[in-house]
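hey m, so remember when u said the tokens were messed up on ur end? i reran from scratch. heres the input so u can diff it against urs
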Amino acid sequence: MAKILLVEDDLRLATLVQNFLIQHGFIVEQQSQGDAVAEHCRQFQPDLIVLDLMLPGLDGFGVCRQIRPWYKGPVLMLTAKQSDIDQVLGLELGADDYVVKPVEPRVLVARINALLRRSQTNLKAEQQELQFGCLLLKQRAREAWYQSERIELTSYEFDLLWMLARHAGQTVKREAIHQQIIGREYDGLDRTVDVRISHLRRKLGDNAETPFRIKTVWGKGYLFVADAWQ
């Protein structure tokens, strides 16, 4: 049974949609405040988000900007506006599809099912192992091996390493790490990620003074170097 987070501030409409979706086999929770979506999403872990555009606290565009660095499920945006610019902007900010209100309930269910099918296909195809020279990462087992020896990592350290390795050759922003791994916004002062990176470097045999495997990109984030694991 797929879990859906329904974000809609019209409580009457939200209740009608929720009941209809429940009748079609979904587990549904409601949220009416845009600025509460991120936390609700982290707690509920929905398979899909139905997101209204006009919300108190933070509009749908702002919600997409906030959650997209770490939420990987599909987002179906609801908008009462016919303007193409709204629809295009929503897609550019991370929405997977949109429907214009008032929407026929059966159409909404059809769109949701289509997005969930595509999401499951992508999930199955997602790489379960990453290899860089002598470094092997196994996502299912949550293990890291270097030169055939297992590296003892905490759950947090593995998640951090996997995130960096999946974006090998790209700078991963500190803000994205905070949101996806730590589960809170980066306030510009928190040094938690820096400390964890330091621990990770030590376990991976990186140079603390001049790191060459996980580099610091000053003012931006961290860079996993793909060819540094021979």
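this time it looks ok to me. The chain has a mean pLDDT of 87. if urs says something different then somethings off w ur setup not the seq
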